[in-house]
Design brief:
This protein is an alpha+beta fold and 179 residues long. The chain has a domain of 121 residues: Immunoglobulin-like (Sandwich), CATH 2.60.40.1930. Helices cover 23% and strands 30% of the residues. The chain is built from two helices and eight strands, in the order H-E-E-E-E-E-E-E-E-H. It has a five-stranded mixed beta sheet with strand order 2-8-7-4-5, with no helix packed on it. A three-stranded antiparallel beta sheet has the order 1-3-6, with no helix packed on it.
């Protein structure tokens, strides 16, 4: 019995000593350009090591946005609970790239400094450990493209009604010809 206890204790100690220490997750992120106009395309990329994953999760904070972070495609959707922007990870080297086209996002983007976060698990900024995320700042200036805010002229609705009427006439004539 004494030998059995000694054997169990020795096995337990050897298990503790020989258990490999898990490598820490290391994330990197960069953006190009880091000074852009609202409406520009920004390339965000980085690496992930210490884990094998097929995707990283991205979210952004900035002027007038939810402090938990929001998705990059829709600035009205808070990050978390499965709602994130994702970037696929190349398994051979752990690198990832995301192209952020700020001309096609939903929600209002104001000029100012924005922080883009990359995390390895789908958890928002307030619930994620600092050592398991990386950030990059991007400053957005007002759009340099002219804004056309004038409403469409009165001719557009008239033309649309005319096209719809012509199509309706064509369809009804075909039906009559088939009879």
């Amino acid at each position: 019995m004494r030998w059995a206890c000694l054997l169990v204790i020795t096995a337990a100690l050897l298990g503790v000593v020989t258990t490999p220490v898990a490598a820490a997750t290391l994330l990197t992120i960069s953006a190009s350009p880091q000074l852009a106009h609202i409406g520009d395309v920004v390339t965000i990329n980085g690496t992930v090591s210490g884990i094998t994953t097929i995707a990283v999760y991205l979210f952004v904070t900035g002027p007038d946005l939810d402090t938990r972070g929001v998705t990059l495609e829709n600035l009205n959707i808070p990050a978390g609970r499965g709602l994130f922007t994702t970037a696929p990870v190349r398994l051979r080297d752990g690198s990832w790239t995301y192209t952020w086209d700020t001309s096609v996002i939903l929600g209002a983007m104001s000029p100012g400094k924005y922080t883009v976060y990359v995390v390895s698990s789908p958890v928002d900024r307030l619930r994620n450990a600092r050592e398991e995320m990386a950030t990059v700042e991007i400053e957005f200036l007002a759009s340099d493209k002219p804004v056309n805010e004038s409403p469409p002229g009165p001719a557009i609705p008239v033309i649309a009604v005319g096209v719809a009427a012509a199509l309706g006439l064509c369809v009804s004539r075909r039906r009559e010809e088939r009879r």
